[in-house]
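Q: Sequence in, structure out?
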Amino acid sequence: MKTKLRITRQGKTPATTPGLRRLFRKAAEETLSCLAIEEATEISLLLTDDQTIHQLNYAYRDKDAPTDVLSFAMEEGEEFVATKGEPRMLGDIVISRQRAAEQAQLYGHSQEREEVFLFIHGLLHLLGYDHERSKEEEREMFALQDQIIARLSERFPEYNLAVSK
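A: Exactly. Output:
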């Protein structure tokens, strides 16, 4: 399985480190592996600030407030049809690094852990999971997120992904 992850930034957001970019890629691989998705995929990740994500949230969801993560699936409600030699384009994930920093402090863990968690959350949305549809889907999606974070934490202890208690 080959996953292409295109990471860009916009607004007043600081640059990422090579380690964080590697961790996003590993999180994508782990998520897809956990769900037994074996074909080549492509994901776009935009790291931004509260002002930019607020504008996107209002424009696309009619919610006049910033949020932590947005997902824009390429296959929403559709069956994927592969083009020979082309990866499966899953869609776009947008994360507010400003909001992630605030939440990391609130929850008592690293900003990297929060950003990777939000990335996994967004990726699961791209793959059709939606915690807002029902309590059952919420439990399933959140359990998957926890499982993936736990696997990443085990495989990459240097990133300190465990939740502080």
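Strands lie at 3-9, 41-48, 69-73, 88-96.
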